[in-house]
Amino acid sequence: MVLLVRAVVPWREPSTNTTAMQAVKKYTKTWLPQNYLPGFENRAARAASIKKGKEAYEKGEKLPDSYFKERQKFEKGGKVKKGKGAKEGKKPLNASTVASLKKKAKESGKSLSTLKKVYRRGQGAYLSSGSRPKTSMAAWAMGRVNSFIKGSKKHDTDLR
After folding, report:
1. Does 126 score more than 80 pLDDT?
2. Is 78 left (phi over 0), alpha (psi -120 to 50) or beta?
3. Which terminus of the chain, N or C, has fewer Cβ atoms within 10 Å?
4. In a domain, 80, yes or no
5. Considering the domain boundaries, does residue 13 fall inside one?
6. The domain containing residue 149 runs over which residues?
7. Are residues 65 and 121 part of one domain?
8. Bridge partner list, 6
9. What is the overall mean pLDDT for the chain?
10. Are residues 64 and 124 located together in one domain of the fold?
11. Residues 64, 109 share a domain
């Protein structure tokens, strides 16, 4: 049996009503959203696994490796899809970017390949975690390189 529950959607602007609402279908036995248990043969085991993880999280405990092995049983098999540029490899850096990285490498004593890795990670951080308004990807990535050269312990500590 499926029960409809109304939930507040916090990321939407309130409309003329007091709050924007969205219907969420939940199973009455587990009270989990319906899309958490699609197509699983043993829904009770899946629900118990989710509940176990939630309780551990609320207590602040670290989950044992066995928990993740249990969760993997529920995953559907299939090949991992690769991105559009996976066959071609990485897009080469701009010539002016490479020139400025070479200059920074010479002045700082760090290797060019390390600074390129930091620059690439800066590009990824720009795309994944957001950035300040009116800041370009190149500026964000070069700022990360500058921070790395100055000795920041905030990121890229594995490259030191």
Report:
1. yes
2. left
3. N
4. no
5. yes
6. 95-159
7. no
8. 23
9. 76
10. no
11. no
What mean pLDDT comes out for the span 119-141? Answer: 89
Structure pTM?
0.47
What CA dihedral angle connects 56, 57, 59 and 60, to 10 degrees?
110
pLDDT of residue 67 exceeding 60: yes
From the number of C-beta atoms within 10 Å of its C-beta (0-12, 13-18, 19+), residue 37 rates as middle
Per-residue pLDDT at 8 exceeds 60: no
AA identity, residue 159: L
Angle at 103 between CA 98 and CA 104, to 5 degrees: 95
69 in the same domain as 21: yes
Neighbours of 66 (CB within 10 A): 8
Say if CB 128 and CB 144 are below 8 A apart.
no
Position 119: which residue type? Answer: Y
* Interhelix angle 65-73/43-59, nearest 10 degrees: 150
